[in-house]
Design goal:
Length: 367
């Protein structure tokens, strides 16, 4: 994927690139707080409009659309949180959980596995929870991936409203849940036991999520909330999570077949969406449009990415290893993915490697 650079040349180029952006790694907590509070406020106000407006009215539809987009933006801060050091901005992490993570049944601690997505040993392999080789598999695998969208909210409800509390008293269920149901992944074949050092945190957020679900169940049985509202909540949740699910199709080329990749190969398997369109702003909030840049420098805060991207392009130009990760728009990336998938025979599908890994992992004892 690279232009025949040796490992030493790769390291030299990355050091040069880092020197260009080395002053941009400091986070601006005030901007994080402002962005989160405004995004969450818009999301919750739009949610109230969605649930109280007359059925099928323009206001109800507008409330649904705006709430989903705002929740998606606010939810994306989970990605920033994971790249913070353990003691960095602790109250921001707590506030995010209370405003977004618990109500949407997606507390950030379940995203701890994301750090593996940046590991040379894991990226692009079956051990990477965020990589599915859709570009090296038949088109039906992409269709199956998209069909998960309406099921995601039901899975979250079952995880925190039923399986989580039951597992507290059922050790075999707990072991299975910690290995197969406690990580936010797009790779359904990912299996890894949740780290022991985070389990106290996990139990706390499980209890908070159960309390949230229990509250609305009591309100339903008592009368103020109707079962129709649960259907509306499912639709809003699916719309919110679906935005990220669809956005994820343009995060990588997804053509790796399971081999470990160098840092530069990871960069060029990733995607920057450089076109200035309304869809880019909508689908790629909080720096997600510069996903290749993020894989080059995972610690770069979202508010510095635009400046960093421009500096790297000015310094290295259109023929650089970095520039080859740039795409004008979302549709060009997804069209390429569909094109590659449509030309992949079933007997050459890389998915079989992922499936074999899942079977092997399932047979291993949980730690």
């Amino acid at each position: 994927m690279t232009q025949a650079l040796t490992p030493d040349q790769e390291r030299q180029w990355i050091r040069q690139a880092h020197s260009v952006v080395s002053d941009l790694f400091e986070r601006r907590p005030s901007l994080y707080w402002l962005d989160l509070i405004v995004s969450a406020a818009v999301a919750w106000i739009a949610t109230v409009v969605y649930f109280t407006a007359p059925a099928w009215s323009a206001w109800q539809i507008l409330g649904l659309v705006v709430a989903g987009i705002a929740f998606f933006r606010a939810g994306t801060f989970m990605h920033e949180i994971i790249h913070m050091s353990r003691g960095e901005m602790p109250w921001f992490k707590r506030a995010w959980n209370l405003l977004i993570g618990v109500p949407l049944l997606m507390p950030w601690v379940l995203y701890r596995n994301h750090v593996e997505h940046h590991s040379r040993a894991h990226f692009g392999t079956p051990r990477d929870g965020e990589y599915l080789p859709l570009g090296s598999a038949p088109l039906r695998e992409t269709v199956k991936y998209l069909l998960h969208t309406p099921v995601l909210p039901l899975m979250a409800l079952a995880r925190f409203g039923l399986a989580g509390p039951l597992s507290w008293f059922t050790p075999p269920l707990r072991r299975w849940l910690l290995k197969s149901g406690t990580a936010y992944v797009s790779n359904p074949y990912y299996r890894k036991t949740f780290p022991g050092k985070e389990r106290r945190h996990l139990v706390i957020v499980e209890a908070l999520c159960l309390t949230w679900v229990g509250f609305w169940l009591v309100m339903t049985l008592a009368g103020p909330v109707e079962w129709l509202h649960w259907l509306m909540a499912w639709l809003l949740h699916a719309w919110t999570l679906g935005l990220n699910w669809v956005r994820n199709l343009a995060a990588h080329t997804y053509t790796n077949r399971g081999e470990a990749m160098s840092h530069l190969d990871q960069l060029q398997d990733s995607v920057n969406i450089t076109g200035q369109t309304w869809l880019t702003v909508w689908l790629f909030p909080v720096g997600l449009r510069y996903h290749a840049l993020h894989h080059l420098f995972p610690g770069l805060p979202y508010h510095s990415m635009g400046e960093a991207h421009q500096r790297l392009m000015n310094r290295f130009g259109e023929s650089s290893p970095y520039a080859r990760a740039n795409y004008d728009n979302y549709f060009a990336v997804v069209a390429r993915l569909f094109r590659q998938a449509s030309h992949t025979p079933a007997d050459e599908s890389a998915i079989t490697t992922w499936q074999d890994h899942a079977r092997t992992s399932t047979q291993l004892p949980a730690s």
